[in-house]
Amino acid sequence: MLWPGGSEGAVSDPMDLFRLDGKVALVTGAGSGLGRQFSEVMAEAGADVACADIDAESARATAAAVEGLGRRAVAIRCDVTAEAEVEAMVARTVQALGGLDILFNNAGIADPEALLLHEYPTANWRAVLDVDLDGVFFCAREALKVMAGQQSGKIINIASIWGLAGSSSLFPALAYNAAKGAVINLTRELGLEYATRGIQVNALCPGFYQSNLSRGAIDDPQVRGAINAFVPMGRIAEAAEIKGPALFLASAASDYMTGQTLVTDGGCLAK
Ligand SMILES: NC(=O)c1ccc[n+]([C@@H]2O[C@H](COP(=O)([O-])OP(=O)(O)OC[C@H]3O[C@@H](n4cnc5c(N)ncnc54)[C@H](O)[C@@H]3O)[C@@H](O)[C@H]2O)c1
User: Fold this and answer.
1) Fold topology of 20-270
2) How is the chain split into domains, by residue range?
3) 82-104 pLDDT, tens per residue?
4) Is 176 a catalytic residue?
5) What is the pTM assigned to this prediction?
6) For 149-170, what is each residue's pLDDT tens digit?
7) How far away, in angstroms, is 158 Cα from ligand 1 center?
8) pLDDT at residue 5 above 70?
9) Ligand 1 within 6 A of 105 CB?
10) Does the beta carbon of 245 sit less than 6 angstroms from any atom of ligand 1?
11) 111 lines ligand 1 (CB under 6 A)
């Protein structure tokens, strides 16, 4: 069935395409920034939400916000770089909320220092790749064990515009950009692998949104000015502005879309 509640091509209320009643979403990095927004919009659209973060307290705060929106929630402490913790996170989601329909593969970190390659320490490279690439792999693999069995699901990998372009005209972000580029092609591959199994895998590529990750740059008036000048819309987005694109990718509204990247960047990559 293409359209919920109707026959193919007929839709009683197009807004129903965005409803997530009865669905279970899992958000990694749910305690802050965009992850908090993903968790909230899932709940606002009717889903129950597993809120996972390496920081247990912030995961609990997001879970409380989900419950405040009238949905069921579970807070899970999980480091996405640890395979056993990722396995336990998915198992706990299914056990506490009764399934898993939507994964926001969102947990991420930035390069610890803005260094060029000839001075870039291996430890920084490993740390960023561990979270931003290996974490995405571990979480997708574990979620797909559930989704492949039920022949349905949505995975939204949070990449970045810096997975599609180099950032060095503003600041060097070597490992981050490498990881995000890999996430985008992993998304294409997973989209194809599961295309006939009822599972859609897409990447969301934000530009500049207010969050803890971007705070260091945004709090510096010089960098903020440079970013505002770089963004065609002339401003950094509020974190909540990610909700619409996120809901689109998590809902039936995007059922015929897989392996794709959705760029939400105030026009940066249109230049
Ligand atoms: N904010 C932006 O402008 C922007 C732009 C492009 C992409 N992104 C991407 O969005 C995602 C979310 O970033 P954000 O901006 O909300 O940053 P943020 O720092 O506000 O939130 C990231 C969250 O991930 C958690 N986290 C970090 N390492 C983890 C780990 N190993 N296991 C589990 N959780 C972990 C943190 O505790 C934090 O709660 C990241 O993948 C980031 O690369 C953000």
Assistant:
1) Rossmann fold (3.40.50)
2) 20-270
3) 999 999 999 999 999 999 999 99
4) yes
5) 0.96
6) 999 999 999 999 999 999 998 9
7) 9
8) no
9) no
10) no
11) no
